[in-house]
Write a structure and sequence with these properties.
191 residues
């Protein structure tokens, strides 16, 4: 039996393995990509659209990705291109970033990935210290991806109250993470 007939009778494993690899890489980096997009695209809905367009483009172009190189800079490059397209379409908006700044932000986010594991550990520790209600609000917003209105409806509050609560939670988490990262850099030292 020739190799050709074996290949045609057996399922092609490469595309399945490629999809698995993409799934793992995307799940590891999508929050960093989202953070980058939201740091440039002010409109929340537009940022989500750009993230979806980025994910689709990454899936479409994944065969072109050089696996010997880091994934994050490559995916941020794809995101940068999608951001620039979105910003050009909406150039009449008053807050539009120039292309150099968008590129600099992508470079910065690539460098941030180095410290990402420590930050994720710190964030996880900080989230675990939150009260149950605060963790529930975070889950509704970031796991279930609900809007402020939907969160308000689910929790029996107003959208404004939900937004303020989320803002306070994010600030508390930011302060906690910064403290923990500072503590990691200077263990046992005077703070």
């Amino acid at each position: 039996m020739s190799a050709k007939s074996v290949d045609s009778s057996t399922p092609n494993v490469e595309p399945l393995e490629s999809r698995r690899t993409l799934s793992v890489l995307w799940s590891q980096h999508h929050l960093m990509v989202l953070g980058y997009i939201r740091s440039v695209v002010i409109d929340f809905h537009m940022a989500d659209d750009v993230l979806q367009e980025t994910a689709a483009a990454v899936a479409e172009k994944f065969d072109d990705y050089d696996s010997s190189r880091p994934f994050l800079p490559w995916v941020l490059g794809v995101a940068r291109n999608k951001i620039l397209v979105a910003l050009r379409k909406n150039s009449r908006d008053r807050c539009v970033f120039d292309e150099d700044l968008v590129s600099q932000l992508a470079d910065t986010y690539s460098q941030l990935d180095i410290d990402n594991n420590e930050a994720q550990e710190a964030l996880s520790e900080c989230v675990s210290t939150l009260q149950r209600r605060a963790r529930k609000l975070l889950e509704l917003r970031y796991v279930r991806d609900l809007s402020a209105n939907a969160i308000a409806q689910a929790t029996g509050t107003t959208a404004g109250a939900a937004g303020v609560a989320l803002h306070r939670i994010r600030k508390a988490l930011k302060d906690c993470v910064q403290f923990k990262l500072g503590e990691a850099m200077h263990p046992g030292g005077d703070a």
